[in-house]
Amino acid sequence: MILKDKMFVISELLDESIKAQTTVYDVRLFRTFIDFESFIEGTPIILNTLVASTRELPFNNTNMVRLVGTLGSPFLQLTGPFIYIIDEEYNQETVQKFFEQAGLDNVVVYQGEINARYVTDIITGKARESKEQQVYSVTYMVRAEEYLKQQSSLSYDTLDEDYVTDEDDLKDVPDEVAPEDIRPATLNEAQIHYIVGHNREERTTLVFLLAQFLALNGRCIIIEKDDEYHRLTEYFTKSGIDGLFITINEFYNDVQNVLLRIRDVSNKLIVIGCIDRIQYNYQFIFNILRSNLRENVTDIIMECDFHDVPQGVDSIYVCANTIPEILRMGKSIYKDINPKHTKFIGLQMNNVNPVNVNTKEMLAVLSVILSKNYLVGQVFRANGITLNGEGACYDIFSILGNKNR
Question: Considering just the CA atoms, what is the radius of gyration of the chain in Å?
Fold first, then answer.
């Protein structure tokens, strides 16, 4: 039995047939670089070769920040080369020089017309040059009986040689002073809080209240999720709370300057908001901030739709504490949940009326829908968007208990 090295390929040009064209690697395909980022976000992997092209990852400042952060991820151990295929419009020497100056010595750059045939030849090795050292590690599994026979035959070959004891073999080796054991300081990485629900005011309100609470003893980042009405931006501007406000346009125009501002400011609450009618990628902004500021802030809150929450992380599901909304949320949860890592929050943002339910009733309904016992949750009343306001959510601390790092 031969254990193949793993190769991840990021390409929209290929299909699963590529796996049959190379017998050396165990190939896995990703359609986009975001798909690859999402995979290693929750899955540690030891990888021999990574292949990408400028079709899926154009050579520009923003994408190179993402790439460097991804290659340095503790969940990714790349033992071989990162093969970067560039189009003919780029200068190959400039691209190669960039990777050398960035300290990425395992990057191999190829240039040519990016099509399915050329990418396939790169993967199979037909189009690779001699500058790339292709060393394949192959492990052969043999039966124990055959292995013992091999070792026995090797031992007989050395019977005629003089036996040298360990003491005689080491007598001419000078003593070495053992270096002092210096243990690096533990890095405190940002804690990620996943708030899941429909795009309604309850989800945004809970994000804003949690951010204010976390900013009391640390530094917290929140990002505008509602690209239509900009609900979070409106909450922050109308609340009068002290914090650093950065627009989405500022982030896209000069991401390096934004990262420096966040590192240097003394504000505890950082809000990435939107004041213009523009389209933007929430997941992309979140990944950039997390990979570059995980040691500079204590908390980052991710506002999630039901398909956005990663598998296996601690998460908080929120909805209005009414029967219609609880049923709607329960039916929208399509991933299997672990009650030990999940909390359900029913947020009451108006006066009590006949459709409102309490904590026990909310959990009973969800238990039936999800076919799960021992669910954890709470109904809270929050008539305001600030911690100190009238009718504020008084027990916000009990919501927090997850640790995603």
Answer: 28
**Token digits of residue 304:** 């999630």
Residues 307 and 199: beta-carbon distance below 8 Å:
no
Separation between Cα atoms, residue 38 and residue 52, nearest integer Å = 16
Work out the pLDDT band at 61, boundaries 50, 70, 90: confident
310-322 tens-digit pLDDT: 888 999 999 999 9
Domain ranges of the chain: 2-124, 191-399
CA distance 30 to 401: 34
Distance of CA 252 to CAs 11, 32, 134, 285, 293, Å?
A: 25, 20, 39, 9, 16
Residues 6+ apart with CB under 8 A from 268: 215, 216, 218, 219, 220, 242, 243
At residue 405, the pLDDT reads: 46
Binned at pLDDT 50, 70 and 90, residue 135 comes out as very low
Topology, domain 2-124:
Rossmann fold (3.40.50)
Q: Report residue 34 as tokens.
A: 């975001």
For 35, half-sphere exposure in the C-beta direction (CA atoms, 13 angstrom radius) is 12
Domain 191-399 grouped into CATH 3.10.450.50: no
CA dihedral 55, 60, 62, 65 (to 10 degrees): 100
pTM of the entire predicted model = 0.54
The region of weakest confidence among 64-78, 197-211, 323-337 is: 64-78
Q: What are phi and psi of 356, to 5 degrees?
A: -75, 145
Q: Are 263 and 296 in contact (CB under 8 A)?
A: yes
What is the H or E stretch that residue 264 is in? Answer: helix 255-264
Task: Tell me the CA distances in angstroms from 392 to 133, 347, 382, 384, one per residue in order.
Answer: 63, 11, 5, 5
Mean pLDDT over each residue of the chain, to the nearest integer: 84
With the C-alpha atoms ordered 57, 58, 60, 62, is the resulting torsion angle positive or negative?
A: negative
The first and second tokens of residue 96, run together, are 């190669």
